[in-house]
């Protein structure tokens, strides 16, 4: 006797599904073709992530569309799948494994009463046959979440794609942001370690949060410093794409500055000292790839552009500015900038035209 379409797919093909969204969409489609009276479905996976506790994909039979809902670690626990499906019809669900972190499959019927006994039995078979492919899928998603948390989205994608050989990389064009706190050493000597970690987290939240909000990626946290990139992407023409990267970097650094103003107000209300910082932007080509020892690699960026943005950031304190911008970025933006003249940078042969943002 031939297996139903959904069970045959789970046995033969589901393990190769590229992600939870296509997995749920295809399984739902096949269950409908098998005659199951479904209005929707949900797949929930636990995620080893510093912010996100669970990810839930929601499928609606009427439209065949899948959307994603996130449950955050700091928020009260919410069953997004059950809550959403309950609005469609009676809910059937089963955890696919003994652990509380095991995947959860849930389905909503398209009637008003409970699932018929035969339909519930068929869904139990689906859950049993789904155990192996879902275990593989959950493991891949967990690995991806960990890599993204520690490497960033783009670097994690390259690692997962197998770009692991030392010395390999690619030359890309990008806007670069380099930032760090001022007088961090002195502050750390008079601040209790746990409070110092909280201070660093608050600083990094302002900078990295703004970088990610505008499409950039943090490459490094080095002590109290941050190195981030805004790669040139797309195909609308190099000049426009260069400008897009620089505009994104400028918006991110402006948002970081605004966030630090607010943080300083909060700290001062608590009787704490403000956190002066310096941030620099530059635009150019970088080599982005694997560098390191034979058994310990790192994805990083190197090249003259990285050297220049680091030296430019060091000019913030002498010039009394929190944000400095190179002429290469200024040439790729319509944002109003204040010129500060040309300045020599240590280790850089040619003087650099320097600009800053207007005072807020």
UniProtKB/TrEMBL annotation:
Biological processes annotated in GO: cAMP biosynthetic process; intracellular signal transduction
Transmembrane segments: none
Domain called Guanylate cyclase: residue spans: 175-313
Source organism, top-level taxon: Bacteria
GO molecular function: adenylate cyclase activity
Family matches, as CDD domains: CHD
Name under which the protein is recorded: Class 3 adenylate cyclase
Organism: Rhizobium esperanzae
